[in-house]
């Protein structure tokens, strides 16, 4: 892992008298490089395993690039808002059957109709799965 100083050296320019200086744009680029390097190192340190059998290890995301690509695909700007609304009205739709393992309900927000889907986790709590 490169230190901050090593990354900054790549972006310095030098004045005629030999003093190093860095422009605001170059500083932002250096900061972005450092952030990406730190994210990649954190990813390597804590990536999730799909299968942790001793004889054959499968990572959920083999590389940091795969992980970032997956994040970009999963990004839904409305999902958090829809989940917030659905979670707030969930108690009104809880099933009478204590053995029910899933539920769904329809609601309208922002002028659009949505369906929220929940499943019951092993601890007995309802978890938001998806919406349409």
Overview of the molecule:
The chain has helices spanning about 5-10, 25-45, 65-75, 80-90; strands at about 15, 20, 50-55, 55-60, 100-110, 110-120, 125-130. It is an alpha+beta fold and about 130 residues long. The two termini are about 45 Å apart.
Summary, kept brief:
This protein folds into two domains: 4-74, no CATH class; 79-131, no CATH class. It is built from four helices and seven strands, in the order H-E-E-H-E-E-H-H-E-E-E.
Fold topology:
Blueprint: H1 4-9, E1 13-14, E2 20-21, H2 24-46, E3 49-53, E4 56-59, H3 64-74, H4 79-89, E5 102-109, E6 112-120, E7 126-131
Antiparallel strand pairs: 1-2, 3-4, 5-6, 6-7
Number of distinct helices:
4
Integer tally of domains: 2
User: How many strands, which pairing sense, and closed or not: the largest β-sheet?
Assistant: 3 strands, antiparallel
Counting helices, strands and paired strands, the structural category is alpha+beta
Spatial sequence of strands, sheet with the most strands: 5-6-7
Portion in beta strands: 25-35%
**Average residue-wise pLDDT:** 86
- Radius of gyration, whole Å: 24 Å
